Amino acid sequence: MNRKNILVLGGGFAGLEAAIALAKERFFNVTLISDREYFYIYPTSIWIPTRGNAFADVTVPLEKLAERRNFNLIIDEVVEIIGKENKILLKDNGEKNFDYLIVAIGADKMKPKGVEFTSSICGDPEEALEIQKQLDILIAKGHGKIAMGFGGNPKDPSAVRGGPAFELFFNVHHKLKKLGIRDKFELTFFAPMKNPGARMGENAVSKMKMIFDMMNLKSHYGKKIKEFQKNKVVFEDDSILEADLIVFVPANKGKKNMVNSDLPLSEAGFIEINDGTFFKSVQVVFDDQLENFEDIKKYKIASLRNQISFLSQRVYIFNDTVLKNVAYGSNEKDINKEKVILALKTAEAWDFVEKMEFGLNTVLNEFGTNLSGGQRQRIALARAFYKNSSLIILDEATSSLDNKIEKMVLNNIDKVLKNKILITVAHRQSAIQHSDKLIKFNNGQII
Ligand SMILES: Cc1cc2nc3c(=O)[nH]c(=O)nc-3n(C[C@H](O)[C@H](O)[C@H](O)COP(=O)(O)OP(=O)(O)OC[C@H]3O[C@@H](n4cnc5c(N)ncnc54)[C@H](O)[C@@H]3O)c2cc1C
């Protein structure tokens, strides 16, 4: 079997999920590429600064996952995607080709002036340890000012990430309270918008205000951040928020190394995708079937049905010649004899048709009463193969064939029906031996 090469870029939730799911399909050869050796569980990393979780608790070595889940792993940095040539460029390992590409390398962060005076809980994993270190120092000192906040991306308002900053803020409050030193600290949350969290509804905003009052948490909202200085947040009106520890979550922006790639990018540098999460307008990276999938809504029902051949256990033979029974539905002048013969050969029916008195022109009785059950089924199979549809559904369609003929038919299907989808419904194992994927039903449920 010619296995398709899938490259999955990125070892976060998205990349891993894709690699694990695709590696289960035996017709794919899946390689995950990550510049980090471990999978980092961002959601549970919010407990690292307050020592609720150790760094090792939120990391899983990718090598172990690759071994257990049967995908290949390359630790390297992707520096360019050349979609038109179906290849990517890696920093140390050169070029890699792909049949299909999944891009899941996350996002870069905005870099306001002086951002180096802050640490983020959403940045590189090491930054969570840096916040932990600075918090430990403050706790040892027994008092201080802590400011936490997040910023926006003017080119893409949806790229804002406020949630994790709020979560860490409350974690720190609870930690200090537990240590009995909360009243020695000033905790301030800052954000450029007037009502952070408004996307979750008015109720959320008013509840947040209530909680802030209850917990004696300060807020500094509605002013854009001009820059950061050592222990200072400077706002657009030059007002200053002083703090011993500043945690700042910048908004996301597109990855810098995508700029050289030939993928369609938004103004903020994110790869543009359509509803099916395919790259917008870069059809060169898809094969024909995926392009068709994208266009499916544009098809008319008649042309869609033309792409499907359905063959059930119950066969209908018309009172007409073998030729017209096989080419059923075609105009007489369009019937291609060679193709009819090929379809009959694929269905292992040519041998007995050839021996009939008038060959292809032999007239069959209605319901095929002048044929055996197995012969009727093979004529019907030939009809499905002649139609040359993309999707062939065989519902117990080989049940009347003896084992030897069935095996021959299935071998022929494998050879002739390349690039087609064949769905076989069967009780007998012999009918599904050639299938790439098996789905077992019991009482109408997939088991
Ligand atoms: C603190 C925090 C708390 C969160 N809490 C929640 C939560 O409770 N619930 C929730 O649903 N979501 C939560 N999120 C969001 C969630 O974690 C993210 O949506 C998710 O991690 C995104 O996964 P991803 O695979 O798309 O990207 P990432 O996790 O960013 O993974 C990107 C991967 O690509 C790799 N990579 C990057 N660039 C390259 C390159 N050039 N070459 C090779 N590899 C590269 C990286 O090493 C990484 O492995 C939280 C996020 C944070 C930061």
**Strands, count:** 23
Task: Report strand order across the widest sheet.
Answer: 5-2-1-9
Ligand names: flavin-adenine dinucleotide
Write down the overall mean pLDDT. 88
What best-fitting shape do the alpha-carbon axes yield?
Answer: elongated
| Discrete helix count | 13
Backbone structural class: alpha/beta
Proportion of residues in helical segments = 25-40%
Biggest sheet details: 4 strands, parallel
Radius of gyration: 32 Å
Distance between the termini: 26 Å
Beta content: 15-25%
Task: Pick out the low-confidence regions.
Answer: 282-294
Output the keywords:
elongated, four-stranded parallel sheet, alpha/beta, 447 residues, binds flavin-adenine dinucleotide
Q: Can you walk through the features of this model?
A:
Helix 10 packs across helix 12. The protein has 447 residues and is α/β, with parallel strands linked by helices. The strands form eight sheets. The protein has a four-stranded parallel sheet, covered by helices on one side. A four-stranded parallel sheet has the order 13-12-11-17, with helices on one face. A three-stranded antiparallel sheet has the order 6-7-8, with no helix packed on it. It has 13 helices and 23 strands. Residues 282-294 have low confidence and may be disordered. It starts with a strand and ends with a strand. The radius of gyration is 32 Å and the shape is elongated. It has helices at residues 13-23, 42-45, 62-69, 126-141, 163-178, 202-214, 288-294, 301-306, 322-326, 337-346, 350-355, 373-386, 403-416, and strands spanning 4-9, 28-34, 38-40, 59-61, 72-75, 78-82, 87-90, 94-97, 100-103, 108-109, 144-150, 185-191, 218-221, 225-229, 232-235, 240-242, 245-249, 252-253, 308-311, 391-395, 421-425, 441-442, 445-446. Bound molecules: flavin-adenine dinucleotide (FAD).
